[in-house]
Design goal:
This protein has about 800 residues and is an alpha/beta fold. The chain has six domains: about 10-170, GIY-YIG endonuclease; about 180-245, no CATH class; about 260-450, 3-Layer(aba) Sandwich (Rossmann fold); about 460-505 and about 575-710, P-loop containing nucleotide triphosphate hydrolases (Rossmann fold), CATH 3.40.50.300; about 510-570, no CATH class; about 720-815, Alpha-Beta Plaits. The chain has 21 helices and 34 strands. Helix 17 packs parallel to helix 18, helix 18 packs antiparallel against helix 19 and helix 20 packs across helix 21 (about 790-800). The longest helix is centred in the last third of the chain and has 22 residues, at about 730-750.
Amino acid sequence: MTHIAPTQTNLFDEAALAKTDIDAQGSDSPEHAQPSCTHQRYSLFASVVLDIPTRALADSFAYGVPDAIAKSVHIGCTVLVRFGGRLAVGYVIAVNAELKALSGAEHLQHTKIQPLISVLSPPRFSETSAHLAVWMSHEYVATLLECLRLFLPPGTTPKLKKNAEGNYELIQAQTKALEERWVSLTARGFAFEPRNSATRQRQLVDALRSGPLTTRELRVLYTDMSSAIRALEKKGIVHIEKRRSWRGGEYDTSLSSAQAHVPGQLTEGQLNALAAIEDVRQHQRDDVIVIDGVTGSGKTEVYLSAIAAVIAEGKSACVLVPEISLTAQTVGRFRSRFGSMVAVFHSRLSAGERLDQWDMVHSGAARVVVGARSALFCPLQNLGLIIIDEEHEQSYKQGSAPRYHAREVAAELAKTHKIPLVLGSATPSAEAQERCLQGQFGGQTWLRVAMPERPGRSALPQIHMVDLRKEFRLGARSIFSKQLAEALLEVVSRGEKAVLLHNRRGFAPFLMCRECGCVPSCPHCSTSLTYHERTHALMCHTCGTSYRVRPYPAMGSACPQCHSRYLAKMGIGTQQVEDELRQLLPADVAIIRMDADTTKTKDAHKELLEAFDAAPTAVLLGTQMIAKGLDFPEVTLVGVVMADYALKMPDFRAQERAYSLLEQVAGRAGRGEMPGQVIIQTYLPEEAVMRAVFRHDRTIFTKHDADMRRSALYPPYVRLTNVVLWGAQEARVRAAAERLAGLVRAVLSETKSEHSQNLPQLLGPVPCALARVKDRFRFHFMLKTPLGYDVSRVVRHALTTFGTVPDIHVSVDVDAYDVS
């Protein structure tokens, strides 16, 4: 456990600090940020990132290290410094005896440096982490503080608060380490025989003869044993010690798919993948290996076997998964193979649980981390392998600053450690496919390993396309086509299971007045409101605002614009599909809905999947969270209620996402010995995406998609950067966006002649697709630049000139995925 080291006092008095010969540093602006003369020379200097969240302080600052604390100052320490006439917490990212060796300090003199005041904690991140944070800061145009915070133990950062008397008080973090008291018998204790009347002491000694127990365990067995423990401790019969306890690791699950049994024989594809990983490991290269395996081909077994080899050498591994819904199954599989050395890290853990899992990794008690993208920043000791499962998933792209992509950060981390990065997917991203085709990217070798077969007698499912246009012409008005309805009834009659995908939560996507055409929209955002039948509410899925409503034909229904009562439900959501399912199927069939509304609580994903697994026959209905990674051999039918929702979105990645979603959900069927079938309902069966899924032939889609992206200049053939500005006044935001875009355009013009005629190029500024969110107006412009072009330098230079504008916020998304 990393504890915050106590300082001499937690109350820092301004007058007392003044006596230590610390002068003011001037204003908070970067050009005046360095301290004035202290008439002191130092034998050691530190580069410090200040815990002050502002883009104006994007870089680190140099401080002198007094001899009295020099032995305690290391990379990763939390320190107290003075900056701009105030106290500040900071983090040491470099230490050197030469001032000029520190980044950004070349122009400084020894006499211009202020001293560190004190050390607040021992190192909490490594030199490698510091280097990676610096790289991320440049690559994603983020402040060093934003990047460095990713590597800090959760909830442990001390804060400074100025009290009413004008003194600074150091507020320690509230998230604390958890310790348990363990009771064990001493050498004398094994021969000790309590007298007959000392019943509690006898119970205690008998229990401890099997081994040490916690006081919590003893309380469960015998209620309160504290008096007996104290009495025997005084006699030297028992010994009490405090041990670190790890919260957040309780991932016991009844899921049958959470067991990873060692197969008797691996497939040829699995053997080839393992051989490729081992070759890179043994030669200490940093190659990226893309395991391109059909759904159910056994990629997880490749991960497990590769990690076993890494652990045998005393190293550790990091495994990223895209969905929290996969965590219970994935963690179960890894723990069935590697036991308690597996830590879990994701956003649904409490602050205390996240801290304990982080500490497990930091202490070396855990050597395998499984989790979402944030798991990549856990302090693994002697890292030997990084794995990203379902690498095509958009969830690996961070939506807030720093807007990193886990794949790119993992590739940089692999370079640093000279270890392999393994990317697994049945539908590799366009970026991964193109890099494998070229063989090189970013100084690394990219290698594709195909796994085209499923183990044993399991086969890919048969695909059926239902043309909803024909269904409508024949008079069908149900959510389910005749073919899908009959297939559901047949599955139920055989006692099997089905999965239904409908990627729209709620009851209906929106309400619309049939007289005037009004669609109720959020007054704070540029989005229509989604109707939820269970709560009779219209909800904004952007800001969360909710309104009570009674749609037609209920009494009281009224259009907010023309007051007509014909405000009707349009389209369908998962709640409406669930209602029709219950009308179609027998009452004893379990229907389990998984969407953002049913999985709000901490363990909801695990509990819903366990209910589906335990039911004799059941239907799992859900959004995209059920489409990937789940492994239930009893599922013989997959249905897609409406496959077209994502296909025509105004996004160049829409078709790629639609193909991945359909191919992934289709792979949930027929994973056991029973054959599977997939029924996809669509109005667009002639689309390349649909034809590719129907024929199990990815090239039908990828050729079409690649041609479109290449001609329109979209990734993976260019870099796409999205710069968004927002504020309360539309005119001011528009003016600021035009000014910043002009500054960027000026820098681009200096380098355009070095590249192709079409690149770099700047598009906009224009209003965002979501032009208003939470009463803030949004404008953006996009940059298309060649691969390898340092677009981050261009934008950072323009932002420095742009400065800060009151009430105008700016975000930069390098290698953008979402441009709404």
